[in-house]
Amino acid sequence: MPIDATQPYDDSNIFAKIVRGELPCTKVDETEHSLAFHDINPLAPIHILVIPKGPYVSWDDFSAKATEAEIVDFTRLVGKVARDNGCVEQGYRMLANIGKRGGQEVPHLHVHIFGGQPLGPMLAR
């Protein structure tokens, strides 16, 4: 169910639990401020999630409140994960669902990296 990205951060969400080590994940990479792991329900041969470790609900929340170090770290990890997983040569898609109309289901900022096959049109009609 899509969430309201304007609401306060809920530290009981699944990604917060993963960051705290309360739930397992198949880790791809990790930095001081960010974590990348395989999606448990992959929609493409490569489907990796990259999240900031801090309590940010959405891109708006993150861009307004994160430190410069967190923003740089997160952005660089997204690029590194794409490179390290062979996505750059063939092309890939980055997707961040934000809020109700964007279809965001977890109230923690996350970027999906999809690759490994042709991905079709950007939006289904």
UniProtKB/TrEMBL annotation:
Residues 14-124 form the HIT domain. A motif (Histidine triad motif) lies at residues 108-112. CDD domains: PKCI_related. It holds the Pfam family HIT. Transmembrane segments: none annotated. This is Histidine triad nucleotide-binding protein. It comes from Sphingomicrobium clamense. The lineage of its organism: Bacteria, Pseudomonadati, Pseudomonadota, Alphaproteobacteria, Sphingomonadales.
